[in-house]
Amino acid sequence: MMFANPTQLARIVVGLLCLSVVFVSGQTVNFQKIDLTTVNPNAVCNDNSPAVYYFRPGYGSGSSVFTIYLEGGGLCYDKDSCEYRWNTTEHFMTSTQLPPILNDTTKSPDVNHGGINSGSKEANPHFYNANQAYIWYCSSDVWAGNNQTFNGWSFRGRIIIEAVLQHLLYVQTPSLTKAKFILLTGFSAGGFGVLNNVDFVGEIISQTVPYAVYKGFVDSGWVLDFPSYDPTDMPARTMMDLAYKNFNLQFDYDCVETFYPSQQQWRCTFADDALPFISSSLFVAGYQYDMPFLPGVGAPFTNSTLEFAYVCRNNFLMQSNVVPFFFSPDCYCHGVQSYDTRWNVITVNNVTASESVWQFLTGNFDTFVNIDSCATMDCNPTCSCIWT
What does the alpha-carbon distance between residue 28 and residue 312 come to, in Å, rounded to a whole number? Predict the structure, then answer.
């Protein structure tokens, strides 16, 4: 990939000279914020502020490992939902409120830099010293928008990911070209983002770092195309269909071609429909009672809503039984990799998600599956989410 012009390249160099990375006893402490418009001026948030990512260089045994993390945070799909999103969760549509530096004690709205993004060996034993790229989610398009403007908002999720790759390959030190292992990972809407982009990113990686092992990790991104318990709720399929049409979302080409005759291209962001078209190796983690994906129900449960949640659980397990790399605790929760209290704590068959993903990335397994079978909600004693 080439940069647009010498002026643009000069801006990047100046930006690099202004960055400093803090080291204590040989290990990196801080994530540094990078303005992605220095790479691609179209890499912007919904409000046209610069899209950003944070980077923390690896060291020691993690020097050749790169994690590229897509933050989650839902989506909007039409004028009203985007205006509501701006009025209630503005930080998911802009970069203007983000701090210049993150470390393991930084507090910022919905910045989930614990778990797989933690620098603590205790909390994150396999990835604590990896090169960590943390991409802020401000495009509201499940990371699939492609230079589309709608009602004054920009939807550029895929362009943002591509800009991060450009920066990691050609500007960042250490460069992604030094990688032996690369993991594209995401939580919630970021999990959708992995489904939507894992082959797109893989194609770039295969051309630029062909010797690296590249894989994807979908965390809490498996949504059921299932009617809501509340009949007044908008179905997930309707939301995704509106987002696809309004924001020019980019899904797998073969998947889109398959569903085009029935005008159901929205299906390509639902895991059970998308997976047959994905060639990259994927690990999936999903709670059997994933909180946002039990349509129309939540704690505190009644007998009726609990029965509905159990039906959703059974449908999720039936859909996902074809996944060769799978981690599924019987918890009522959402997101395993982004929190220190879950990533290396919750176990299935005495194996954590942290260990499972590390073995998946670095090992040579045909299958790696750990699924709770106790059935009752939160019957796994390591479940650590408390919802009221």
Answer: 43
- Give SS3 for 305: helix
CA-angle at 23, arms to 20 and 26, nearest 5°: 145
CA distances from 143 to 157, 191, 254 (A): 4, 9, 19
Share of the chain above pLDDT 70, in %: 89
Cα→Cα distances 341→116, 152, 181, 337, 383, Å? 11, 39, 25, 9, 9
Closest alpha carbon to 193 in 233, 154, 243? 243
Residues with Cβ < 8 Å from 314, sequence gap 6 or more?
Answer: none
Amino acid identity, position 4: A
Question: CA-CA distances (angstroms) from residue 348 to 14, 50, 121, 281?
Answer: 48, 40, 21, 21
The answer to whether residues 144 and 56 touch, using CB atoms and an 8 Å cutoff, is no
Q: Name residue, tokens 């495009």.
A: 139
Quote the CA–CA distance of 50 and 176 in Å, as a whole number.
Answer: 22
Q: At which residue do the structure tokens 């004693």 appear?
A: 381
Say how far apart CA 361 and CA 282 lie, in whole Å.
Answer: 9
Helix axis angle, 157-170 to 189-208, nearest 10°: 40
Q: For residue range 257-291, what is the model confidence (pLDDT) as tens digits? A: 999 999 999 999 999 999 999 999 999 999 999 99
The token pair at 236 is 């997930």
pLDDT in tens, 82-130: 999 999 999 999 999 999 998 766 655 555 568 999 999 999 999 999 9
Report the distance separating Cα 255 and Cα 237, nearest Å. Answer: 16
d(C-alpha 320, C-alpha 323), whole Å? 6
- How would you class 363 by CB atoms within 10 Å of its CB: exposed for 0-12, middle for 13-18, buried for 19 or more? exposed
Query: How far, in Å, CA of 21 to CA of 56, rounded?
Result: 8
